[in-house]
Task: inverse folding
């Protein structure tokens, strides 16, 4: 499992958040999880410049899920 650089208030890393996701179709590969974690970390790096955290984004969107969906496309 990729750990990732950011954590939420519950102490889950971005990699743990990605790994916990399930999707229909073919099983999620390690490469897809790694790509999604890198994308999520990059987006959260940019969001942090604006004072926004993963917990803030959880109120409005499933950003970890969106990153996994994009990486699987």
Result:
């Amino acid at each position: 499992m990729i750990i990732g650089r950011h954590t939420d208030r519950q102490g889950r890393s971005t990699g743990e958040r990605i790994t916990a996701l399930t999707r229909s179709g073919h099983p999620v590969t390690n490469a897809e999880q790694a790509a999604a974690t890198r994308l999520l970390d990059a987006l959260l790096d940019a969001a942090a410049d604006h004072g926004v955290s993963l917990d803030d984004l959880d109120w409005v969107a499933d950003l970890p899920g969106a990153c996994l969906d994009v990486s699987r496309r």
About this structure: The CA atoms of residues 4 and 14 lie 5 Å apart. The radius of gyration is 12 Å. The chain has a mean pLDDT of 95.
